[in-house]
Every structure is written in C-alpha cells, then in structure tokens.
Backbone:
C-alpha cells in the first residue's frame, strides 16, 4: 500500500516560477543590480535560491540580497502574489487524506522561505502532517539523501511513498532513493522529454490528477 504522498512546493503544489522571477528582480533592483533575463531564471529554476543567485546575477552580494529578499517576500505573500494554493489542489490533498494517505511536503526552500506556509493557521496545517525543508534536512535534491530525515522520522519504507514534483532533479532524487515518482507538468516549465524515463512512474498534466495517479500506482506490482 502507498501510505504517504510527499509533495514538492514550487510549480507542483502551487505555480511559482513566474512570481519568483518578478520577486527576485524586484530584490535586485532594490540593491542596485540589473535584472536577470528570464532564460537564466528558467535554466536555474529548482536550485536553492542562494545557490542559484550567483548565476542569475553574477557578482551579487548574497547577504544584501538575502536581507532584501525577506522584506520583498513578505510583501508578495501578503499581497497574494506568491504561494497561493488553488482550491482544486487543496481538494486533491483532502482526497488523498480521505483515502488514508499521509501527506507531507519536501522542498529545497529554507525555513524562512517556508515560514508563512508553516503557520498554524495556514490552509495546509490540517492537511499536511510534516514539512521537510533546508532547515531540517542535511541534503538537497537531486541528492537522494534528501529523503533520509523523512524516512527516518516516519519509519516508512521508500516503496510506501510517492514523491510528486516538477523537475528532473526531483525525479532523480526520488528514483535513486527508492520512492515512486509522479512528474507534474502543469507549470509548462518542463516537458516529458526533460525527464529520464527510468525515474518517472507517471506524468500528470495538473496537480489534482495526482489522486488518481497514486491509486493507479498502488495497483501496480
């Protein structure tokens, strides 16, 4: 039986690449840096933010960027411009829970980037049983050890878990850790041919399809 569905955040649970591109360019403007091209943002999307920024803005002062980013992030969240989870995705989480699945999040974001999603009054609070991020895991995707803390904390075996993500790095991490993987293509940032077939069990075009995809995987030997 598939006991846990583990979900990535960016461009999986909610669509964020476009908003993050605008947000990060606003931060760069505030610290006197020129904007990055969209092509560079897309090419580095999925990497931890501060790992990606030297390529997105060569020579950037990461400490200044991080300080300004925290301010702009708060404003984007408050204005409903980032991390808005569509109602249909929340209903999909409810259906997974109703089917007896444990729902967890696993992301490469830092704890401060996740703070608003971790709030006790957030819509995820009653739907998600645990959240694993850069603050409570030792390794980042595509390293398969990104799942070590999750598996240790829950006592689940890898084959009892499905990871849902949007990037080839997500697929590699899950596949090499022994988890099944569902690739969500809703953002349009990636296509099927971007993934190695051996690391993907199923593709879905929209997040709510995850419910039926997990049920189908459970029927496989």
Residues:
């Amino acid at each position: 039986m598939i006991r846990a569905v583990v979900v990535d955040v960016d461009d999986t649970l909610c669509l964020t690449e476009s908003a993050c591109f605008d947000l990060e360019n606003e931060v760069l403007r505030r610290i006197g840096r020129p904007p990055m091209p969209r092509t560079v943002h897309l090419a580095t999307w999925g990497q931890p933010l501060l790992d990606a920024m030297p390529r997105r803005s060569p020579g950037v002062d990461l400490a200044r960027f991080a300080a300004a980013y925290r301010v702009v992030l708060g404003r984007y969240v408050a204005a409903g411009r980032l991390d808005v989870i569509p109602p249909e995705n929340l209903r999909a989480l409810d259906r997974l829970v109703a089917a007896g699945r444990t729902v967890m999040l696993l992301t490469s974001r830092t704890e401060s980037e996740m703070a608003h999603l971790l709030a006790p009054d957030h819509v995820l609070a009653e739907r998600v049983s645990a959240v694993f991020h850069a603050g409570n895991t030792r390794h980042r995707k595509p390293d398969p050890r990104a799942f070590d803390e999750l598996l240790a904390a829950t006592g689940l075996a890898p084959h009892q878990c499905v990871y849902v993500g949007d990037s080839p790095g997500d697929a590699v991490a899950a596949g090499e850790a022994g988890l099944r993987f569902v690739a969500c293509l809703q953002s349009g940032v990636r296509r099927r041919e971007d993934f190695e077939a051996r690391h993907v069990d199923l593709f879905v075009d929209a997040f709510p399809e995850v419910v039926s995809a997990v049920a189908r995987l459970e029927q496989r030997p």
